[in-house]
Specification:
Layout lengths: L1 H24 L2 H7 L9 H37 L5 H23 L9 H12 L4 H31 L3 H28 L5 H24 L9 E5 L6 H18 L2 E5 L29 E3 L4 H5 L3 E3 L16 E3 H10 L3 H13 L4 H14 L6 E5 L14 H15 L8 E7 L4 H8 L3 E4 L2 H6 L8 H16 L2 E4 L4 H10 L10 E3 L13 E4 L18 E7 L4 E6 L7 E5 L3 E3 L2 E3 L27
Parallel strand pairs: 1-2, 1-4, 3-4, 5-16, 6-7, 6-9, 7-8, 9-10
Antiparallel strand pairs: 11-12, 11-15, 12-13, 13-14
Helix pairs in contact: 1-3, 1-4, 1-6, 1-7, 3-4, 3-7, 6-7, 8-11, 8-12, 9-12, 9-18, 12-18, 13-17, 17-18
InterPro entries: Fut8, Fut8_N_cat, Fut8_SH3, GT23_dom, SH3-like_dom_sf, SH3_domain
Membrane topology: Single-pass type II membrane protein
Protein name: Alpha-(1,6)-fucosyltransferase
Length: about 625
């Protein structure tokens, strides 16, 4: 028991050491650039001054972390007085080693610079041009992810220590450590955010996001409105897939991706839709203004040879699960010609791409747009606000586990604690979307300090007996709309409604890839090609549950356990190739596929300089 406690405390010291390392090594090459004042002009001096302030703040955090490390050492010494064994001596040795790590990182961490030569030149150029370097953005996201993952790990391990310990003093100390470490973690998250903005990169990100979005939307408009419908190549998609609204939206999105990648106009067959017999256009604008007729000189189903399909005017699409052969442009791939810009702009390029697909196919009819506007006014929807989606009824016990409201509210609380480090929050608001009509009253009783915004009529219409009606459809559209408009999303990614909201959320921000917490799955697209990661660091398994990693290994992802570990399959290994590995030791593979570049659509148009820009509503 005591050994477990000591090991948990040792883990905590190493966590603190890692935070010191991060606080000392964020963008060190910028400091080098500060000494080359002749290369930075005008506003750059102010930007570097702000950066210097941020680094100074992080050094102060360094001192605080060292104090906490000393407290941990004192606690372990107290615990060790009653245990005269080799394990106590080993623990003291490990603590001494951790202290040496702290000393070394404090001494030379800020001087580390893995980006030399061309990369340093690119960083200097980026500072002048107000466009960040790819390396800078990639490193920023990696550090953010590392801080988040090590916080998951620390919380999970300390909870184990607390549960196993019989000492009230140790339990109290663990609670204090978690509280203090939480403050430090939130401070570093805010500092990372501030570092991303010190040189006015927000302006570049906003303009770049709008430029890319406008380009993609104009390509969709061009594709979907051929001058001659009779001779245009087409793909035909039947809306009535046997599933709920979120699943059907993703079905249409998959059809739109196939249409874009094959340069064929999408014909959506939606009459007799189980939600609205009049079809898709009852709520959303038609996908085309010029081409609605599926007829053509030749027709075939997908699955013929690629050569035959190329010569066929009209192709009927199956559901994504039945697509064979499976092309490389299926999710999670993005268009190759947009990939470099997207890697720089966004933390999850495919989710951005999917958001753009949904932005086009879900353009509301004027009546629906007015309904959504009035709903927001009626409910008092205001920022800041966290969207919480709780799916119960038919999903629990089949596709998802039961999660109490308290599990969601832990992450709502975490969001607001971080936000309050940057601004005054007068009222903590939650938009609650659920198919359980009793949950709103339960949430209000349990969390009176929060304002819960919800429409119980929507919850009631989402019940199994009335789910496939126009009222229920309007309800789920409304819920998704306000979940996507929220500043942060807490939900279960096993739910298609949650994933649709997350995808649409990307259209309201330059990069909202981190504006969520899922209680179960990582993000995925049903019927996707394999989700892959690449190993950054070596990992030697310490139990039969873990797998080995070597830098460069490709891992097929099964999921993230949100405790510092993920599960997957190492493609390199033939035996013991499936199991757990530390989440921070891998990075996502951005899948890229060759798709048409649509040279007929200009990259930029004068209207891109309008005031209709993506607004930044949140920072997390």
């Amino acid at each position: 028991m005591k050994t477990t406690v000591k090991l948990g405390l040792t883990v905590s010291v190493l966590w603190l050491a890692s935070l010191v390392f991060l606080s000392g090594t964020l963008f060190p090459h910028w400091e080098e650039g500060a000494g080359q004042g002749g290369e930075f002009k005008s506003g750059a001096a102010l930007e570097l001054n702000q950066l210097s302030k941020e680094l100074h703040r992080m050094r102060r955090q360094n001192d605080e972390l060292r104090k906490q490390a000393q407290q941990l050492r004192d606690l372990v010494e107290f615990r060790a007085t009653d245990v005269e064994d080799n394990q106590a001596l080993i623990l003291q040795e490990k603590l001494a080693q951790a202290n040496n790590i702290l000393e070394k990182l404090n001494k030379d961490g800020i001087q580390r610079d893995s980006y030399r030569g061309d990369v340093a030149a690119e960083a200097r150029y980026s500072c002048i041009s107000n466009s960040p370097s790819v390396q800078q953005e990639k490193l920023l996201r990696r550090i953010h992810n590392g801080v988040v993952e090590i916080w998951y790990y620390l919380k999970a391990e300390l909870q184990k220590v607390k549960m196993l310990s019989t000492s009230e003093k140790v339990k109290e100390k663990v609670d204090q450590m978690m509280e203090d470490a939480g403050h430090q973690q939130r401070s570093i998250i805010v500092d990372i955010y501030n570092l991303s903005r010190v040189d006015n990169k927000t302006i570049w990100r906003t303009k770049e996001a709008k430029s890319l979005s406008d380009l993609v939307q104009r390509r969709f408009q061009y594709l979907q409105n051929p001058t001659e419908c009779n001779t245009a190549q087409k793909v035909v998609c039947n809306l009535n897939k046997g599933c709920g609204y979120g699943c059907q939206v993703h079905h249409v999105a998959y059809c739109m991706i196939v249409a874009y990648a094959t340069q064929r106009t999408l014909i959506l067959q939606s009459h007799g839709w189980r939600y609205a017999p009049e079809g898709w256009e009852k709520f959303f604008l038609p996908l085309s203004e010029t081409c609605h007729d599926r007829r053509g000189s030749s027709t075939a189903r997908w699955g013929s040879s690629m050569e035959k399909m190329a010569k066929t005017q009209v192709i009927d699409l199956p559901i994504v699960d039945g697509l064979n052969p499976r092309p490389d442009f299926l999710p999670l791939a993005i268009p190759e010609d947009l990939s470099e810009r997207l890697r720089k702009l966004h933390g999850h390029p495919f989710v951005w791409w999917m958001g753009q697909v949904l932005k086009y196919i879900l353009r509301p009819q004027p009546r629906l747009a007015k309904e959504l506007e009035l709903a927001g006014q009626r409910m008092g929807f205001q920022h800041p606000i966290v969207g919480v989606h709780v799916r119960r009824t038919d999903k629990v016990g089949t596709e998802a586990s039961f999660h109490g409201i308290q599990e969601y509210m832990v992450h709502v609380e975490e969001y607001y604690l971080t936000l309050e480090r940057t601004q005054r929050v007068q009222q903590r608001r939650v938009y609650l979307a659920t198919d359980d009509a009793s949950l709103l009253a339960e949430a209000r009783r349990a969390y009176p300090q929060y304002v819960f915004i919800s429409d119980n009529a929507i919850s009631q219409s989402a019940g199994l007996a009335s789910r496939y009606t126009e009222n229920a459809l309007l309800g789920v559209i409304t819920d998704i709309h306000f979940l996507a408009l929220s500043d942060y999303l807490v939900c279960t990614f096993s739910s298609q409604v949650c994933r649709v909201a997350y995808e649409i959320m990307q259209t309201y921000h330059p990069d909202a890839s981190t504006f969520f917490h899922s209680l179960d799955d990582v993000y995925y697209f049903g019927g996707q090609n394999e989700h892959r990661q690449t190993a950054l660091y070596e990992h030697k398994p310490r139990s039969r549950d873990e797998i080995a990693l070597a830098p460069g290994d490709t891992v097929g992802v099964a999921g993230n356990h949100w405790d510092g570990y993920s599960k997957g399959r190492n493609h390199r290994l033939r035996v013991r190739n499936s199991g757990l590995y530390p989440s921070y030791k891998v990075e996502e593979v951005v899948e890229v596929a060759q798709m048409p570049t649509y040279p007929e659509v200009p990259l930029q148009v004068p209207s891109e300089n309008s005031d209709d820009e993506i607004k930044v509503k949140s920072f997390l």
